[in-house]
Specification:
This protein is of the alpha+beta class. Helices cover about 35% and strands about 20% of the residues.
Length: about 240
C-alpha cells in the first residue's frame, strides 16, 4: 500500500528515522531529508490517521529537535477528501509555527527551496518568511502598487483568458530561479555583477520591467505562485498591447 509521503520530494533520497522516546504515538515516522550544510535543516516526514492538533505537533517537533542547532520542519501527512493534506510545525523557537490543512504540492515546493539554501540560517529565515504569508489572502503573492488584491483574487478569474493562462503556467510549477523567469517569457539582461534587468517583448515593442532583481533573489525565486504571476503578466501584456 502506497503511503501519503511516497512521492514527496521524489527527486531526493530520504533517510529513515526512528521516533524518540516520548514522541506522539499518533504520528508514524516516514522519512527525513537533510540540508547539505553544517547543522542543516531537517525536513521530517510523518504520517497520521487524521489531522494532528497543535500540541501534538509541537511535542513531536520538540522531541525530534531535542535541543540541537539544526532547524526542523516537521510535516505530518493525513488523508483528506482530496487525497491528502499536511500539518506543519517549525522551524525554530520555543513556540514553533503550526499550520494545518496545507496543500501537499505547495509544502513540497517550499521544502525543496529551503533545502537548497546555503546554510541553516538562510533556510530558517526563508521558512519563517514564507509561513508568515500563509495567513494572507493570497499566500506567496506580494502585491505592492500593482493591482487591487481583490482584482487578482476574483476579477482575473473572470477573464476569458483564465483557462488558457492556467494551462500555460501549470507546467512551470517545478521551475525555479533564472529558468523560471525565462520560461515566463522574460529575457534576463545582465547589467552588472549583482543586478539584472528583465525585458519582455509585446508585439514589436520591447518593454522594460520597472524592477530589477539581484542575482541572489533570482536564485531564490520559487514557482509556488507562478500560476498567479503568469496571469498577472498575461493581463499586463494585454494592457500594453492596447496602450501601445
Amino acid at each position: 500500500m502506497r503511503g501519503l509521503t511516497d512521492e514527496f520530494l521524489i527527486e531526493r533520497d530520504p533517510v529513515q528515522w526512528s521516533a524518540p522516546e516520548g514522541f506522539p504515538g499518533s504520528l508514524r515516522p516516514a522519512g527525513l531529508f537533510a540540508q547539505d550544510a553544517p547543522s542543516g535543516l531537517e525536513v521530517v516526514l510523518a504520517e497520521a490517521g487524521q489531522r494532528p492538533n497543535a500540541p501534538v505537533m509541537r511535542r513531536a517537533w520538540s522531541k525530534r529537535r531535542a535541543g540541537r542547532a539544526s532547524p526542523v520542519l516537521l510535516l505530518a501527512f493525513y488523508p483528506s477528501s482530496d487525497g491528502g493534506r499536511v500539518s506543519l510545525c517549525g522551524p525554530s523557537g520555543e513556540q514553533p509555527v503550526v499550520r494545518h490543512d496545507l496543500d501537499v504540492s505547495q509544502v513540497e515546493r517550499l521544502a525543496a527551496v529551503a533545502l537548497g539554501e546555503p546554510n541553516h540560517h538562510a533556510a530558517a529565515r526563508l521558512l519563517l518568511a514564507a509561513l508568515a504569508e500563509l495567513d494572507s489572502p493570497v499566500p506567496g503573492l506580494r502585491n505592492v502598487g500593482l493591482l487591487a488584491t481583490h482584482e487578482l483574487t476574483a476579477g482575473v478569474r473572470e477573464m476569458p483568458e483564465w483557462g488558457e493562462a492556467v494551462n500555460r503556467s501549470s507546467p512551470l510549477l517545478g521551475e525555479r530561479g533564472r529558468r523560471l523567469v525565462e520560461r515566463l517569457g522574460y529575457t534576463v539582461e545582465v547589467l552588472g555583477s549583482n543586478t539584472s534587468m528583465l525585458t519582455i517583448g509585446v508585439g514589436t515593442v520591447l518593454s522594460r520591467c520597472s524592477a530589477t532583481r539581484t542575482s541572489r533573489s533570482m536564485r531564490q525565486l520559487d514557482a509556488s505562485t507562478v500560476r498567479r504571476r503568469c496571469l498577472v503578466g498575461w493581463r499586463l501584456r494585454i494592457s500594453r498591447t492596447w496602450i501601445g
